[in-house]
Amino acid sequence: MQLPLQRRPLPEPGLVDLWVSDLAAFPLAGKPGSPGQREQQQILKFRQRFLLRLLLGSYLDCPGKAVRFDRGPTGKPELIPALAAGGLRFNLSHSGDWLVVAVARHSAVGVDIERRRELPRAAALAQRFLSPAEARTVAALAEPARSECFLNLWSRREALVKARGGSVVSSLGDLELDPVDGQPRRLPADWPGAPEWTLRDPSLPAGLVGAVAVAEPGWSVLTHVLELGVP
Fold first, then answer.
1. Residues facing 176 on adjacent strands
2. Angle 147-153-159 (CA atoms, 0-180°, nearest 5)?
3. Predicted structure pTM score
4. Where residue 68 sits, what CATH number does that domain have?
């Protein structure tokens, strides 16, 4: 799919639309690397907000500039009530120039992506942020599998927490994943529907790992690539 975006139907029940975009191909003035670091970050944030509004506007059948956001009880960004009446829910994540937006209907959704890379302190990070069983699994591996395992488990945690709202740190003690298949073993008792959540590995471009979480069981994820170049 390319710009300009056409009107889209709301996602079907039980399905997450996952949009993947390379913001380096954004057809606006300014190229990554030419401005200073601070300006690069400002340009990147502008591109993320601009594309998010356009994408949600295509589902809501309204211009991107008409899309407005609010904060939910847990601080999670969401559509204002007038726009959320149809049940549209979303979440986004970015890593480098890559942006992903997860869109669902009538259920909380969370997404996280991470750039594949070697982490010299992967074992120490796992011991600090993951469950003991997960940390042992990470530490037992050699590179590059060690970093890959940590990033996979971390992205799954992030996706779950972002679907719920809040921070990973606040959920560390009550959140445990299976170190082999990455599925939830234990979720905080105050999470709605715990532990019956969906956690999926979406199809992503090479060089990225990620996860999508939905606060209901049995959901599927359909990945779309959004081409940002001029048609």
1. 186
2. 130
3. 0.89
4. 3.90.470.20
